[in-house]
Amino acid sequence: MTEALVFSAAVAAFIWFLPQIGAYWAVVLLLAVAISFRWHSETYASAGFASLEFRRALRNWRIWWAAPVALAVGLGWGHLPGWAGGYHALIYCVWCVVQQLLFQNMVCKRLRESTGPSWKNRILAGSLFGAVHLPNPVLTPATVVWGTLSGYLFEENPSVGALGLMQFLLSISLFWLTPLSWNHDFRVGPGYWHFH
Q1: First-residue to last-residue Cα distance in the chain
Q2: Which pLDDT does position 83 carry in this prediction?
Q3: CA distance 160 to 147
Q4: Could you give the CA distance from residue 54 to residue 31 in angstroms, rounded to a whole number?
Q5: What predicted TM-score, i.e. pTM, was given to this entire model?
Q6: Peptide bond before 68: cis, by omega within 30 degrees of 0?
Q7: How many alpha carbons fall within 13 Å on the CB side of residue 168?
Q8: CA 135 to CA 188: how far, in whole Å?
Q9: How far apart are CA 15 and CA 158, in angstroms?
Q10: Is 130 exposed, middle or buried (0-12, 13-18, 19+ CB in 10 A)?
């Protein structure tokens, strides 16, 4: 449990104090992740990258895919990007996969290891995920809910690729559903207030 709390606090510190601590803090975080993965003997598959689990998640989560796909397709009809927008969408989708890789392996798994799978742990993990998205009034509650649900889904089918894709679809739908004056282009930390 300590590892999950410390990692979440370190990510929050990076977001809030980046100008003071410098970008090198990202290297410290990545090194901590690498050490944790090595310490816990994570493999490509156990970290959530098994292609079999990805295919199983696409099949088993059919009901969970319905809403984000319908929302993204329905809302996105008027927002279809050009080539540059498509490139940015691809980069954002990869970022969602990276978030799920870190969240599932550094927070959710560590909480499960300490007291076992439970809704209490999932809600705590979701709350930690939401806390690093403060003070954004759109992202914070959305990521608490998504963090809680994604922890449960990962237990069923450990696929960070499928979860990242679902997060991407939910995120772009939420972005299109909320006014820019609320979502501030999904900025978090001090960047939320500096958005123009």
Answers
A1: 38
A2: 47
A3: 13
A4: 27
A5: 0.90
A6: no
A7: 19
A8: 6
A9: 27
A10: buried
Cα 147 from Cα 122, distance rounded (Å): 8
Non-local CB neighbours of 150 within 8 Å, separated by 6+ positions: 100, 103, 104, 108, 163, 166, 167
Question: What tens digit of pLDDT does each residue of 52-86 get?
Answer: 999 999 999 888 888 878 877 777 655 655 544 67
Residue 40: pLDDT band (50, 70, 90) is very high
Residue carrying structure tokens 């590892």: 3
**Beta-carbon contacts of residue 146 (< 8 Å; ≥ 6 apart):** 126, 129, 167, 170
Question: Where do the H-state alpha helices sit in the chain?
Answer: 2-21, 24-39, 51-60, 62-76, 83-102, 109-115, 119-131, 139-156, 160-177, 180-183, 190-193
Is the Cβ–Cβ distance between 125 and 7 less than 8 Å? no
Count, residues in the chain: 196
